[in-house]
Write a structure and sequence with these properties.
2 copies of one chain form a homodimer. Chain A has 13 helices and 20 strands. Chain A is α/β, with parallel strands linked by helices. Chain A starts with a strand and ends in a 7-residue tail after the last helix.
């Protein structure tokens, strides 16, 4: 008998009829001889409706009260799910963050889980009931309600699975698994059967939206296998698992892209030791994350350098006045911004043992006359910043050139 | 400096604009030098919407899960209220049932408050914040969410006021106080300035809807003065207070009516000792409350008696088959039902010291040719069951004949 965690997102519980389908599916899993814990998101659209109410009252709502409001979405869907299971002849009860209890830090609207008590969940499944845990929510040490940020129910699912030692965490979604790249722009994109935590973490960080980054981090840390699959079909999806070596001779596992970053170009910085460190130190103090960084090489001490880096577009508005102030302070001549950029990345464990992958990527892009504006790499990924208009072309060309379109 | 509890019902927080009005009002009370605790209901219509969702899923929803869903209405309105107060420049925080904490018994959908911890509320007001407590909800000893039944926020208000030793509990509503009778059917109805707990309790029990019965019971037990007033005007409303003697020479304080009862008439019961006790014992076992009871007097042991009593119309459907079974068991010839009845009542502390009030009531009704079908009395009230078509006539005539229309 296995203990299985099944997490259903907002689309999967988006109507009463869909809630019934999930209830039947969970009961089928239970009747096959398993203990079942469900994690549910709010019905699709509900979180936005609730946050809209708060914004109607005040322009910059207090984060603590936002969480009190937002958490009701999952509170309602977990109770409706318990009712739907009962209506199908099963037994179930809803469990909220403060009931489980899911203890988080105090960072309202983006809290991180610290500990999860398993006893209420165990008590529930031991009675033959399905435990329906409200996703996305927890409580801080004072008992205030917190939420985990967008996609936080994935994190609840994996963290609960880790806490109770579940066999696996099934993440049900509206696609049937993790793809080698976005099928909407690349017709040869293929569902991946099995991928390592490390690769999934890079893909999620680089723009693949199928799993929340934090949930993959927790799964990797505690070794919880994740099964990403469709709530609308019975087929196997993608298993995200621990892999020490790349599978066979697959070098690149997937191609990701992210339009969320903007390029900042600071022209004519004094080329003195410490100036650039000073610049990024000051930006970091403002809690603005900088991603790709390039500093131009200069010919001598009298020449001025250029610095390019990227920040997320959502940070750019509040970052702009500050960046300009810092740039002025270090004697820069000018600051330019470009939001029409995309970061295209290839990810794969195989890069560790295969040389020349980055060079191959640059050649492929060059072959399409795509200019690379910035590069960043890690052990298992290479990212290139290019003009946004080349997004589809670059993704399709890289995907097929690295052999991702063919079945392994 | 006083500590004041202000409770606002669903109509008073029915829109964002109304929530803002309440926020301003609470802040004005605070700025006048008081500590303020708000109790809020769900926005009007919200509780019905939520219960509708549950009923869409299943015909007879589990009461525990109903409460999880229903309690979100107050959760949202309390947080919105805290945000509105902040938006007006004040400080506030929402407190839910499990945060306060409001401990209840385990009777889901109609729980009774056992204890309320004051510490979180005190911590909040001590910081200069307005504590916004979600009405209608609590938790049982296992931490499950419970609700207090319709109108339960009144009870939260009075119970919180008792627990923290508040100066008074102000109940804001859409009328400007308690009336001598329903102004919709009696134009000479007059707002009462001051009424005793006992009289208010009888009026609430006999059909006046302005306060939940349970809230008056708690106010009486703990001596918490209640001020019922309008959320749409500044005027004084009605004070519900401890009174040992009737005010001046007012004998009758108010006239109430209740169309919620149905008459059951059991014809031809054997007139043996114990038969009637047996009948009502069996009905009580089924948790059906019986109100007015009349047993006809018989001439001798061979004659058969008739028994008349009333039950609430909502109980009648499930009670009918059972009543007929019991009636058959005690040899009754026939059972008749009449739903076209109304219970009209006069209430007043002055009845304790004035004889002949009941007789005067009967004479007044007889004077209008209204037949009395059943009577019940207590120390401070007389109720008559009459045909429903006479409701308005009876109420108006009694109201004016007992001098309630004139200003004291």
């Amino acid at each position: 008998m296995a203990l299985i965690v099944q997490k259903f997102g907002g689309t999967s519980v988006g109507s009463i009829e869909r809630i019934r389908n999930v209830a039947r599916r969970a009961l089928a899993t239970q009747r096959a001889g398993n203990d079942v814990v469900l994690i549910v998101s709010a019905m699709s659209g509900e979180t936005n409706r609730l946050l809209g109410l708060a914004h109607e009252v005040t322009g910059v709502p207090d984060a603590r009260e936002m969480d009190v409001i937002a958490s009701t979405g999952e509170q309602i869907s977990s109770a409706l799910m318990a009712l739907a299971i009962q209506n199908e002849g099963g037994q179930a009860r809803s469990l909220l963050g403060h009931q489980v209890k899911i203890l988080t830090d105090g960072a309202f609207t983006k809290a991180r889980i610290k500990t999860i008590e398993g006893s209420k969940i165990f008590d529930t499944v031991r009675k033959g009931q399905i435990a329906v845990v409200a996703g996305f929510q927890g409580v801080n040490e004072h008992g205030d309600i917190t939420t985990l940020g967008r996609g936080g129910s994935d994190t609840t699912g994996v963290a609960v699975a880790a806490a109770i030692g579940a066999t696996a965490c099934e993440i049900y979604t509206d696609v049937d698994g993790v793809y080698t790249t976005d099928p909407n722009i690349c017709p040869s994109a293929r569902k991946i059967d099995r991928i390592s935590f490390e690769e999934m973490l890079e893909l999620a960080s680089l723009g693949a939206k199928v799993l929340q980054i934090r949930s993959v981090e927790i799964a990797m840390k505690y070794g919880v296998p994740i099964h990403v699959r469709s709530s609308f079909s019975e087929g196997e999806g993608t298993w995200v698992v621990k892999e020490d070596s790349a599978l066979e001779d697959v070098v690149v596992a997937g191609v990701a892209y992210d339009k969320g970053e903007a390029r900042v170009h600071i022209v004519g910085v004094e080329d003195k030791p410490g100036i650039v460190a000073d610049l990024f130190g000051k930006i970091a103090e403002k809690n603005i994350s900088v991603d790709m960084i390039i500093q131009s090489v200069t010919a001598g001490a009298t020449e001025r350098a250029n610095v390019t880096f990227t920040v997320t577009k959502t940070d750019l508005v509040r970052a702009k006045p500050f960046i300009e102030e810092v740039a002025k302070g270090i004697g820069a001549r000018e600051v330019r911004y470009d939001e029409d950029v995309v970061k295209v990345s290839i990810v794969g464990l195989g890069m560790r043992s295969h040389a020349g992958i980055a060079a191959k990527m640059f050649r492929i892009l060059a072959g399409e006359n795509i200019n690379i504006q910035a590069i960043s790499t890690s052990e298992i990924k290479v990212s290139c910043l290019i003009a946004a208009k080349y997004t589809e072309l670059a993704v399709r060309t890289l995907h097929d050139a690295f052999g991702l379109g063919q079945k392994k």
